[in-house]
């Protein structure tokens, strides 16, 4: 019952040998979502042993090179590996143009189909939904460049049956779905077994929000409120707040503020400028505002466990 | 007086964590030529401490992704670094289309100019020439895909002056160029000092040939005859000769044969299939035919020293 994110790249525009440009894989119950795809993403997926062929959904926040230049290589590798399963790509309408142009010019033959889903970027938009998960995008603030944040949220689960009590009361299978939904059970002799004797609370829904690239943007707080994990960019330190504002990026302190205001459980900061070799100051600065902060460095895995309170 | 090639990527289409796709930097007398530019090239240049900003010439052998997908990232990085100096790109006419489309769609602002030079691919073609170096392309055989090999050759140098003899005979500066070209010197008293007393032989010209991707193609032998270093692809082992032929690649043995027939000084083999973790067999197979063979693995540097015989 995994819900975990693996960081493939944590740097901003200029990659370093230690930190590749932005890319992450979120594993939700063995469904794998690739979020952004900077140059070298496919190499990082091999390095960190992620099952490349099981990526069925790729979400791209915006059309800056450090978030997309690994995509054409990944698609070509899928083709060489004989991929057959559909691939869904979510991003700005230009992304479809970019990929189609490249595949056509290079005469790349795909045995799989790509479905392009346009992120319009003006409102909250549902990108993907099934019985157990919903994925939405919401607008960030990155100057003239439309940029989307992403919110992954499990859906409410039904209550969990207590298997020992089911067999004790010999409850027929046909009644079980109702009991999961909260029904009591009435025995043949009329005795009513209250639901809380037969079930326990469902695990809490888990959630992840991904916010990069963006200037400090308090209006995202209600959207990401209470998430278990928040990835927020922290390109700069507080000493460069002006530069952050000018380039529509955030400081580590601002990332901490957003996390604190949104009352998230844990903050991951990333998208570091290549000028910083050591990231201790970023971590300290964010922790001063929001103590439960971690550096989202390449290769790190952050999990959210199932929790029934 | 360097003449050395640094291997940035030695793998074929699918990269591994150890071996990136094809890219090399040739340093000829502190002029830096980038040859092919697979995904991750800019990261490898940082890893192996090559001066990225001094790349003024990029040569692309053919339009397969594993030889080009790093280029747009490199051009963008140049832009971010504030590059001003011209960049010359040599390749198939589609390469210009690909780059122009991407730069335009992504609205990448360059403060430097790109000059595109089309490789026509049917004949030997001079791509670059100055006082001391000539760079030519020649056609390889890679199925329907036009593919160019590259030959880098220093030009003949003038003879080297013996400085002690120049001062001994007190030879005026105005005479020195003629003496370098082979003139004798006539002293004021009429004594003739023969040229070989004043000069020694110039160092021999150095040369490098780059041949990938290609099927076994003996007709390149006269073109690359006698080069100091030959890089030749060896995607497969002899046991897969049929597959090599079908996919227009070479085996390690065939690379060895070309080296032997062309009487080169040293053979470097590369463009290995990702299926091979260990490359001992490739090396052995090529060495059986041409003993002075080395594996062109990522990060290795191969130099040609100045030699006066």
From TrEMBL, chains A, B:
The active site is at 66 (proton acceptor). Its EC number is 3.1.26.11. This is Ribonuclease Z. Zn(2+) 2 binds at residues 66-67, 213, 271. The lineage of its organism: Bacteria, Pseudomonadati, Bacteroidota, Bacteroidia, Marinilabiliales. It comes from the Bacteria. It is an enzyme of class 3 (hydrolase). It catalyses: Endonucleolytic cleavage of RNA, removing extra 3' nucleotides from tRNA precursor, generating 3' termini of tRNAs. A 3'-hydroxy group is left at the tRNA terminus and a 5'-phosphoryl group is left at the trailer molecule. Belongs to the RNase Z family. Zinc phosphodiesterase, which displays some tRNA 3'-processing endonuclease activity. Probably involved in tRNA maturation, by removing a 3'-trailer from precursor tRNA. Homodimer. It holds the Pfam family Anti-Pycsar_Apyc1. Keywords: Endonuclease, Hydrolase, Metal-binding, Nuclease, tRNA processing, Zinc. Binds 2 Zn(2+) ions. Coiled coil: none annotated. InterPro entries: RibonucZ/Hydroxyglut_hydro (IPR036866), RNase_Z/BN (IPR013471). GO terms for molecular function: 3'-tRNA processing endoribonuclease activity; zinc ion binding. Its cofactor is Zn(2+). Zn(2+) 1 binds at residues 62, 64, 142, 213.
């Amino acid at each position: 019952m995994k819900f975990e994110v693996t960081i493939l790249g944590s740097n901003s525009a200029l990659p370093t040998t230690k930190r590749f440009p932005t890319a992450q894989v979120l594993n939700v119950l063995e469904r794998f979502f690739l979020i952004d795809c900077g140059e070298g993403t496919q190499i990082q997926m091999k390095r960190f042993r992620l099952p490349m062929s099981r990526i069925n959904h790729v979400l791209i926040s915006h059309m800056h090179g450090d978030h997309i230049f690994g995509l054409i290589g990944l698609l070509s590798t899928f083709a060489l590996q004989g991929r057959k399963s559909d691939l869904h790509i979510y991003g700005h309408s230009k992304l479809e143009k970019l990929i189609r142009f490249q595949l056509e010019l290079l005469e790349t033959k795909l045995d799989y189909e790509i479905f392009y889903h346009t992120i319009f970027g003006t409102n909250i938009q549902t990108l993907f939904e099934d019985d157990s998960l919903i994925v939405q995008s919401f607008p960030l603030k990155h100057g003239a460049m439309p940029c989307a944040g992403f919110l992954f949220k499990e859906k409410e689960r039904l209550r969990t049956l207590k298997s020992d009590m089911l067999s004790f009361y010999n409850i027929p299978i046909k009644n079980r779905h109702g009991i999961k939904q909260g029904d009591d059970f009435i025995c043949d002799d009329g005795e009513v077994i209250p639901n809380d004797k037969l079930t326990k609370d469902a695990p809490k829904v888990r959630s992840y929000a991904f916010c990069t690239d963006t200037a400090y943007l308090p209006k995202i707080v209600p959207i990401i409120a209470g998430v278990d994990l928040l990835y927020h960019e922290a390109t700069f330190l507080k000493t460069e707040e002006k530069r952050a504002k000018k380039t529509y990026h955030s400081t580590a302190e601002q990332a901490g503020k957003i996390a604190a205001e949104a009352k998230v459980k844990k903050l991951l900061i990333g998208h570091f400028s290549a000028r910083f070799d050591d990231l201790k100051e970023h971590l300290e600065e964010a922790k001063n505002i929001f103590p439960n902060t971690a550096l989202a460095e390449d290769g790190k895995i952050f999990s959210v466990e199932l929790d029934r309170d």
